Amino acid sequence: MAFRSLSPQSTHGRQAEARRNDLAVLEAARDVFSAQGADAPISAVAERAGVGMGTLYRRYGSKAELLQRLCVLAMRQGLEAADEALSAADPWTGLTGYIAACIEMRSGALASLAGQVEVTSEMQATAERAIAAMTEIVARAQRAGYLREDVSPLDISYLIETFSRCPRGAGGVDEGEERNVRSRLLALVLDGLRPGAATPLPGRPPSRERYVARWARH
């Protein structure tokens, strides 16, 4: 799946090149950080993206600014997927399409950065919009009777994060087989979201306070 454009407007020249670099770096960062964790060197991201370190630092200034920018870009992609989900006539199709799109783009792959980078006001505002959109996606599916009532929006968020962690081609595994296994597991999980003969979920819904607190700088 090609990554979505982050703006409906076409761009040209340097602006278009900067946008292409942003997307290449974002995709590379997802691979690198999901494989190596938050301590992975930026040089590994630059190498995987096919851009020079000078290019990164001219554009972002520091590692922290780069990571903050990548988090915002990732959330914006999730918001575009959420907009599509909310415009779907069928709430279940909207929900499952949203989950599949987020997993395909591995929107939760940068969760390893939680607590490692200072949260900016832009990150905070974008995250609040993303949570609000996901809450409405879940609520629509539940109101229509397609989604079990004991599922919370954060259950969906953690589900997406879990599926996002595996980097493409990890451990020398054939990517086609990796995709096959991932699609089978996702189908099993999506069936588990239906009300049908579902057994009650154990424990309590994930805490929003804890979910947000992960991003407090350690």
Which SSEs are present, and which pair or pack?
Elements: H1 13-36, H2 42-49, H3 53-60, H4 63-87, H5 91-104, H6 121-143, H7 153-164, H8 175-192, H9 208-213
CATH architecture of one domain: Orthogonal Bundle
Largest sheet: none
The proportion of strand residues reads under 5%
CATH topology of one domain: Tetracycline Repressor, domain 2
**Tally of DSSP helical segments:** 9
Flag low-confidence runs: 1-5
Coarse morphology = globular
Alpha-carbon Rg, integer: 18 Å
Summarize model confidence as the mean pLDDT: 85
* Separation, N- and C-terminal Cα atoms: 35 Å
| Structural class label | mainly alpha
CATH homology superfamily of one domain: Tetracycline Repressor, domain 2
The first-level CATH class name of one domain:
Mainly Alpha
The oligomeric state of the chains shown is single chain
Q: Helix proportion of residues, in percent?
A: 55-70%
H/E series = HHHHHHHHH
Number of strands: 0
Give a brief outline of the structure:
The chain has about 220 residues and is mostly helical. It has a domain at about 70-215: Tetracycline Repressor, domain 2 (Orthogonal Bundle).
Give a verbal description of the structure.
The protein is mainly α and 218 residues long. The chain has a domain at 71-213: Tetracycline Repressor, domain 2 (Orthogonal Bundle). 63% of the residues lie in helices and 0% in strands. The protein is built from 9 helices and no strands. It has helices at 13-36, 42-49, 53-60, 63-87, 91-104, 121-143, 153-164, 175-192, 208-213. The longest helix is centred in the middle third of the chain and has 25 residues, at 63-87.
